Amino acid sequence: MNTTAPHILCVNPWIHDFAAYDFWARPLGLLYLAGLLRASGCRVSYIDCLDRFHPRQPQPDPGARDGRGPYRKTVIAKTPGLEDVPRRFSRYGIDPEWFVKDLQSAGRPDLVLVTALMTYWYPGAAETIAAIRSVYPDVPLVLGGVYAALNPGHAGQCMDADEIVAGPGETRVFHLVEKYTGRAVTPVCDPADMDAVPYPAFDLQHEIPYVAVLTSRGCPFSCDYCASCLIEPRHRRRDPGRVFEEIRYWQRSYGVRDFAFYDDALLVDAENYADVLFSMICDSDMDVRLHTPNALHVRNITRSTARLMRAAGMTTVRLGVETADFEGRDMDRKISEAEFFQAAAYLQEAGFDSRELGAYLLAGLPGQDPASVETSIDIVKSVGISPIIAYFSPIAGTKMWGAARAASRYDLESDPVFTNNAVMPCQPEFSWELVTRLKRRIAA
Ligand code: B12
């Protein structure tokens, strides 16, 4: 019987898209699995096809001071079906030759775990899997991640994986290791216990420009356009003290300064959660910059939470406004005009300026009048907050899917690539004119 520790190779795939940028974007789920398997005794290797700091990369662009930055990119042929889009299409990430060399130098694994985030990025994952198969044709390979969770049927048909895993991996991965390597690994902790699971293995990266932090799983809300409750139906939170320790660990051990929260609802019940965490950071000697690229709920911003956010080192605040055309009739509004103005006032009073404060406005919703996006831009700007357009990506299974399908110029059901927000699938037609108009309005 083979008793050596199984060698598990974790791979974050390339992205094929019209645009991509490292906006604090890490394969957090895969890094959680890597950390858990490593702490449980497996030999874990990691290859990040989106590595901005790959050793073969001549003079990597360090990007912004706060950890964000551009991926290497190579123009490639457009994915079939998207030929009509008048934009360049690229593979984002490391050179395929470097990837093959990295695969060879990692040594033959016993099992490969590949993640895939956006559903419409599956062609990049497919190319990644083909490259892995070319080097290790007979090594079992399992695919998971948001794409696998939201489109398991499509993934099962189109991806050359031995198995597709939909949903959280911590509780499943030990079974997978045993099934595919024939070697049982005992978990170091209860994999379902969010407070016991080891930190994500960011130290397997060549550099740690920032760390992504998740204080919870799931979301207590269920917005029409969002798939969070399909991915994780239950809202669960970690102990804020444990989250604080995690931030301190990365700061002390690796000098990390920038931390991006990935939560869907970080500020819900702030008094008993986020405020506690922010207070711990304030009371420590840490010097951190905190970012919330995934939007915060405006209604949860009170005067005291805004002050604590500021004092703890928050420098990027993104608000989920969706539409500020409060008079318009585009969608069910989550917030009122008064709530938005109040939140803006509290944040400004706490010391945040317009560069730090951004509001996501959804554009390209089914049936949405582009004029209402322009109204929203004006309202958001009028209170000194930077408008940021979030182009709508329709997701199968969400409440908005039916309306999205009806409005789309593509057969959305036929292929996830048509849900790419860059092609504005629910607009009557892709319009550069509209994109430019919105950009100008923001800059004006
Ligand atoms: C954080 C986040 C972001 C971050 C960055 C994320 C990143 N890594 O790049 C930011 C804020 C930048 C972002 C941006 C966007 N996002 Co986003 N984002 C999320 C969010 C909230 C969490 C994802 C996450 O990291 N979860 C935490 C980890 C721990 O979970 P996980 O990755 O799923 O991993 C677990 C399992 O999947 C599994 N697993 C993962 N890999 C593997 C591998 C194997 C082998 C196995 C067995 C298991 C396994 O185990 C893991 C641990 O349990 C999700 C919603 C959600 N709740 O999932 C939306 C979500 C993924 N985003 C979405 C969207 C639409 C966007 C935007 C397009 C928004 C916009 N209109 O501008 C942009 C586009 C980004 C881009 N083009 O680069 C959609 C997906 C759309 C789609 N078609 O796929 C989601 C689902 C939200 C929604 N609207 O419903 N996003």
Topology:
Blueprint: E1 7-12, E2 15-17, H1 28-39, E3 43-48, E4 73-75, E5 90-92, H2 96-106, E6 111-115, H3 122-135, E7 141-144, H4 146-150, H5 152-158, E8 163-164, H6 173-181, E9 211-213, E10 216-217, H7 228-231, E11 236-237, H8 240-254, E12 258-261, H9 274-283, E13 289-291, H10 303-312, E14 314-322, H11 337-349, E15 357-363, H12 370-382, E16 386-391, H13 401-407, H14 432-443
Parallel strand pairs: 1-3, 1-6, 6-7, 7-8, 9-12, 12-13, 13-14, 14-15, 15-16
Antiparallel strand pairs: 2-5, 4-5, 10-11
Helix pairs in contact: 8-9, 9-10, 10-11, 12-14
Bound molecules: cobalamin.
What does this structure look like?
The chain is of the alpha/beta class. It folds into 2 domains: 7-181, Cobalamin-binding domain (Rossmann fold, 3-Layer(aba) Sandwich), CATH 3.40.50; 210-443, pyruvate-formate lyase- activating enzyme, CATH 3.80.30. 32% of the residues lie in helices and 15% in strands. It has 14 helices and 16 strands. The chain has helices at 28-39, 96-106, 122-135, 146-150, 152-158, 173-181, 228-231, 240-254, 274-283, 303-312, 337-349, 370-382, 401-407, 432-443, and strands at 7-12, 15-17, 43-48, 73-75, 90-92, 111-115, 141-144, 163-164, 211-213, 216-217, 236-237, 258-261, 289-291, 314-322, 357-363, 386-391. The strands form 4 sheets. It has a 6-stranded parallel β-sheet. A 5-stranded parallel β-sheet has the order 3-1-6-7-8, sandwiched between helices. Helix 10 (303-312) links the parallel strand 13 (289-291) and strand 14. Helix 8 (240-254) packs parallel to helix 9 (274-283) and helix 12 runs parallel beside helix 14. The protein is globular and about 65 Å long. The mean pLDDT is 94. Cobalamin binds at residues 20, 23-30, 32-33, 113-115, 117-120, 142-146, 149, 165, 168-170, 172-173, 214, 226-228, 231, 262, 264, 293-294, 390-391, 393, 395, 419, 421. Cobalamin is lined by residues 20, 23-30, 32-33, 113-115, 117-120, 142-146, 149, 165, 168-170, 172-173, 214, 226-228, 231, 262, 264, 293-294, 390-391, 393, 395, 419, 421.
